[in-house]
């Protein structure tokens, strides 16, 4: 269980799916702030309620979930779980370019939802660490790509988890007296130099 409990806004145009979140999220100790059925309602709910997590279907009639998230990100960076009935690599690639997201396929189970929430909140905590070194959210998001690439390189051998790779990156930055993004750039450059 995530501590403290999260304040969640959920968007899906299927009422049965919304009802399932209304049951599942409190079982995980989280508060459901709003259940909405469109992208426009999602944007409005996030502005009014200031959730700590957004869960949204990708396909909705008025506005795709990804588009709604981009609008939300104009004013506030939030962790997001994108949900879809099928895996679409193009949508996923578009979503993960900058945003702090996790992807979940329907049907949603309690166990899988718990795992995805834990992972996206871990990514968000890493972003918060990076943001403290930057002059703002936008700059932190831009540098996050390099950090994610460096973490992937550190995890390549399979010995490190995502959190462990980030911790190793932070340790390296601290030892060198550099910001995390500079340490990440150094790792990426070193690997690229050895593969040329």
Question: Can you walk me through this structure?
Answer:
The protein has two domains: 119 residues, Rossmann fold (3-Layer(aba) Sandwich), CATH 3.40.50.2300; 62 residues, Arc Repressor Mutant, subunit A, CATH 1.10.10. The chain has a five-stranded parallel beta sheet with strand order 2-1-3-4-5, with helices on both faces. α2 packs parallel to α3, α6 crosses α8 and α7 crosses α8. With 196 residues, the chain is of the alpha/beta class.
Shape: elongated
Assembly type of the shown chains? single chain
Task: Give the name of the CATH architecture of the largest domain.
Answer: 3-Layer(aba) Sandwich
Number of domains: 2
List segments where confidence is low: pLDDT < 50 over at least 5 consecutive residues.
none
What Rg is obtained from the alpha carbons, in whole angstroms? 17 Å
CATH topology of the largest domain: Rossmann fold
Q: What's the main sheet like?
A: 5 strands, parallel
* CATH homologous superfamily placement of the largest domain: Response regulator
Mean pLDDT: 88
What is the CATH class of the largest domain? Answer: Alpha Beta
Discrete helix count: 8
Strand content: 5-15%
Separation of the first and last Cα atoms = 44 Å
By secondary-structure content and strand pairing, the structural class works out as alpha/beta
């Amino acid at each position: 269980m995530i501590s403290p409990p999260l304040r969640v806004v959920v968007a899906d145009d299927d009422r049965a799916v919304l009802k399932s979140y209304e049951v599942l999220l409190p079982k995980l100790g989280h508060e459901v702030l709003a259940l909405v059925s469109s992208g426009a309602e999602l944007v409005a709910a996030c502005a009014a309620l200031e959730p700590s997590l957004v869960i949204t279907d990708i396909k909705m009639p008025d506005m795709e979930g990804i588009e709604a998230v981009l609008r939300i990100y104009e004013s506030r960076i939030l962790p997001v779980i994108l949900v879809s009935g099928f895996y679409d690599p193009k949508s996923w690639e578009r979503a993960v370019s900058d945003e702090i997201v996790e992807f979940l396929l329907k049907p949603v189970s309690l166990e899988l939802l718990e795992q995805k929430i834990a992972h996206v909140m871990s990514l968000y905590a890493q972003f918060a660490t990076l943001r403290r070194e930057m002059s703002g959210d936008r700059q932190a998001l831009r540098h996050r790509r390099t950090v994610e690439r460096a973490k992937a390189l550190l995890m390549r051998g399979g010995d490190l988890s995502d959190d462990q790779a980030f911790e190793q990156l932070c340790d390296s930055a601290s030892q060198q007296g550099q910001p995390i993004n500079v340490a990440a750039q150094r790792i990426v450059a070193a690997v690229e130099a050895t593969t040329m």
